[in-house]
Amino acid sequence: MELKVYWQIIKKRGWIILLAALITGAAAYGFSGLQKKVYRARILVSVRPARADFGLTSSTKDLLRNFQTNLLTHTMADKVIRRAQLDMNSYEILSEIEVNPEPDRFVMEIVAKDADAQTALDIVKNMAQIFVDEQEAWNQKQDKRDRIDAWIVDDPMDAPLWRPKPKMNGVAGAILGALIGALILFALEWAESAYIRTSDDMERVAGVRVLGAIPSHKTRSRKS
Question: 48 with 60: CB under 8 angstroms?
């Protein structure tokens, strides 16, 4: 199909695409506004061996998984609740946090998602500090050359909105609607292609040149 034909189709029924995009975009935007707001706080804890020894470095990387396991326990959750004085239980805390070890950077990422921005901040700050304090206590029992130091890289200043994101969802909904509208448009054109309305349609279907056509009743009436 030539580009000129596509352009004619769009001029004729392009409103279908626009309408579909408008409906789905508005629906996505409106639905996002009804969703519960969730805020996301994030903190990084650096974990580094006391000396640049290959064996100690490798052990530190392996220990990051163990640290992750220890942080995602009810014991740690209860410590966070007591320290931050949160009106929550350990199950709620564990459902809101995630710990992502990054061995290549010797870093652990602690993330909390909560309906209250301040609560999310309190969770990550206190969990990170408890971990650092406990690691420091463990280091006191070790030889200085075998210690693994831990400290908070940077205190999070805020907990930005994680979801919903009405504008982003609205744009995504509009794009999806435009695609659906385009499919509907070309489906209609395909369905109508089976009908012969013009001499061009006849030539296309029959494969022969049309030399003449019988005028319609309306055409004869106007001439008379």
Answer: yes
Residue type, 21: A
How far, in Å, CA of 96 to CA of 113, rounded? 5
The arrangement of secondary structure in 38-163, i.e. its CATH architecture, is 2-Layer Sandwich (3.30)
Phi and psi angles of residue 86, each rounded to the nearest 5 degrees, phi first: -95, 140
pLDDT on residue 165? 76
pTM: 0.65
How many beta carbons lie within 10 A of that of residue 65, not counting itself? 12
Domain ranges of the chain: 3-34+165-223, 38-163
More confident residue, 161 or 150: 150
User: pLDDT digits over 61-96, tens only?
Assistant: 889 999 999 999 999 999 999 999 999 999 999 999
Most confident of 115-119, 167-171, 173-177: 115-119
Q: Which of 60, 64, 124 is nearest to 96 (CA)?
A: 124
pLDDT in tens, 25-34: 888 777 767 7
